[in-house]
Amino acid sequence: MTQNPTLSKLLPLSALLALGLSSLQAQAQTAVPTVVPTVVRIGHVGPVSGPQAHYGRDNENGARMAVEELNAQGLSIGGKKVKFELVAEDDAADPKQGTAAAQKLCDAKVNGVVGHLNSGTTIPAAKVYNQCGLPMISPSATNPELTTLGYKQVFRLLANDNALGAGLAKHAAHTLKLKKVAIIDDRTAYGKGVADVFAKTAKELGLEVVSQQYTNDKAVDFMAILTAIKNKKPDGIFFGGMDPQAGPMLRQMQNLGLTKAYVFGGDGICTDKLMELSSGAKTLGNVVCAVGGASLDKLPAGQAWRAKYEARFPKQFQVYSPYTYDATMVLVDAMKRANSTDPKVYGPKLVEAAYQGVTAKVMFEPNGELKNPAMTLYTYKDGKKVALN
């Protein structure tokens, strides 16, 4: 390093040494290359438009929370610093849009997928993901068909309709001692699936199915269906569908004087939003609904997780966001165990999962079903959803 002669005469030796050291440090700092993290993209698909948008937003929020927390950990996988990004798509609860969203994620070469919400979108999308080699964990699609398709990297994070429909039928027969039930379903893969299981189990338990009616997932007027059912005088009505239909149905049941019949349904109607959609109908208190998991309030980490969620996404919680959160974490856990974010490398590790999540100790059967899934029954009291078990 060449020193300025005039400066050398004016400064003491110690100052010159300090100046030289400072210069060398500055050069060393500029020579250190910046570490650019490897971007790992997690796809999420759900209905964030249309009447089921509150479900989709809730699911997306759960996945987003997981991504934010993972990034805060500053993880390295396979010796490389990683940064996670959520790639969110909207399927509007429509099967065609669902397969299009799946293909979009395949083309974008995301590293894994959390979704879809509905069985009717998840089942056809699973074929697309299978073809392009993307692991997929659904947080909420409960139709049993999903895990019978033979796709090795398709997983489900909660109990299926066989558990939900059967559990509700057993509650109707054994706990409530009902004799006659009517059934309505919306003809979707989810609604028909859970209703069929309820009907089959109810008959096996000696319940009489006095009426079986059908609607669709866009309907809002159920007066004709409910009038036909009322004449059969059932003790309970099972609805296979989602809350945008269940809410108006509860109001119309009250208007028709169907105020003593229990109303059964799966996780599709078991939301906080149902209270708003039913507009204060007294029949809300007759609802008994099932969710494929333990009550969040009763889980060791559940209340703390819910508090974090409410702070991040106030008044948006519905049902499945803890499951999308866990699904995202399970994908990344497999990446860490495989020392790779490559779907071909970490995908086979998913079936070996033993991850302690918010919703459960996540372990999978060889076909992708959750091992030892819990189920919780809920009802509505004083404007709140409360667990019965």
From TrEMBL:
<dbReference type="InterPro" id="IPR028082">
    <property type="entry name" value="Peripla_BP_I"/>
</dbReference>
<dbReference type="InterPro" id="IPR000709">
    <property type="entry name" value="Leu_Ile_Val-bd"/>
</dbReference>
<comment type="similarity">
    <text>Belongs to the leucine-binding protein family.</text>
</comment>
<dbReference type="GO" id="GO:0006865">
    <property type="term" value="P:amino acid transport"/>
</dbReference>
<keyword id="KW-0732">Signal</keyword>
<dbReference type="Pfam" id="PF13458">
    <property type="entry name" value="Peripla_BP_6"/>
</dbReference>
<protein>
    <submittedName>
        <fullName>Amino acid/amide ABC transporter substrate-binding protein (HAAT family)</fullName>
    </submittedName>
</protein>
<keyword id="KW-0029">Amino-acid transport</keyword>
<feature type="signal peptide">
    <location>
        <begin position="1"/>
        <end position="28"/>
    </location>
</feature>
<dbReference type="InterPro" id="IPR028081">
    <property type="entry name" value="Leu-bd"/>
</dbReference>
<feature type="domain" description="Leucine-binding protein">
    <location>
        <begin position="40"/>
        <end position="383"/>
    </location>
</feature>
<keyword id="KW-0813">Transport</keyword>
